[in-house]
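Before a colleague's protein record goes any further, I have to sign it off. I want your independent view on whether this chain really folds as the tokens say. The record follows directly below this note.
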Amino acid sequence: EETCEILRAAYGQSGQENPGVLHCFTGGQDMAGECVRIGFYIGVGGIFTFKKSEALRKTIEEVPFERLLLETDSPFLAPEPYRGKRNEPAYVRIIAECLAQARECTLAEVGRQTSVNFDRLFRITPSRA
């Protein structure tokens, strides 16, 4: 709640579009909803794949797809089955696969949407088709 209060005070009335990302998000549905309402993106990392992260997966399923980003947090928090080992950027595919399964969509859809989200957040004009 304290985090949401700080974000509301800093960005809630600013009208600033896309103020940032909640990196390595592990909060609950209320926090995710409030942060998205303020304009933030939610970062989905290796913790999302952990066997005991059912509550986090349920929370992420409720976040609008247009507000999700994939992240590695390398060299920390490697996804299953590499948990406890050095994380590598290549493992982001595992996170994407887990997200596709949780959202009942294809890996290509996850890749496409999270790429669009990245471009929007960082104001990048995509060169991809």
Observations:
- The longest strand covers residues 41-44.
- The helical segments are 2-12, 29-38, 54-62, 92-103, 107-121.
- The chain is about 45% helix and 5% strand.
